[in-house]
Design a protein that fits this description.
The chain has one domain: 3-Layer(aba) Sandwich (Rossmann fold). The protein has a five-stranded parallel beta sheet, with helices on both faces. It is of the alpha/beta class. The protein has five helices and five strands. Helix 1 runs parallel beside helix 5.
């Protein structure tokens, strides 16, 4: 389902550094951010059709690949854009995230550096 003008970003992460960084960039871009830490919350909030879902692929609060598979196979959430970020040394995880439906996967450093631009899109 297409985004209906939502200005909300859903972030699935448990890393305080990235939580603060994403919140600051979202505020600068005029967007709201909601941080969720479990799969149930992700699906409750994703049904509201956020502009974007950001997933820390190294996070411990959810199983990221399982979550991506469920998001992209669910009729209510399959069209929501998903960006994942991962440690640069985890090429296999990056590849698996692409295969399970993550629209874009970036190394943590590239994600951090390009975050303002990504949110302006």
């Amino acid at each position: 389902m297409p985004n209906n003008g939502s200005k909300k970003i859903l972030a699935v992460l448990d890393d305080l550094f990235f939580t603060v960084k994403i919140a600051a960039a979202a505020k600068q871009a005029g967007l709201e951010i909601e941080v969720v830490k479990d799969e149930k919350q992700v699906f409750e909030k994703a049904k509201e059709h956020p502009l974007l879902i950001i997933v820390d692929l190294n996070g411990n609060s959810v199983e990221p690949l399982k979550l991506l598979t469920k998001l992209k196979s669910n009729a209510d959430t399959k069209n929501v854009r998903v960006i994942g970020f991962v440690s640069h040394v985890q090429g296999e995880l990056k590849q698996k995230a692409h295969e399970t439906g993550c629209d874009m996967v970036l190394a943590r450093s590239a994600f951090s550096q390009n975050l303002p631009m990504l949110l302006k899109r």
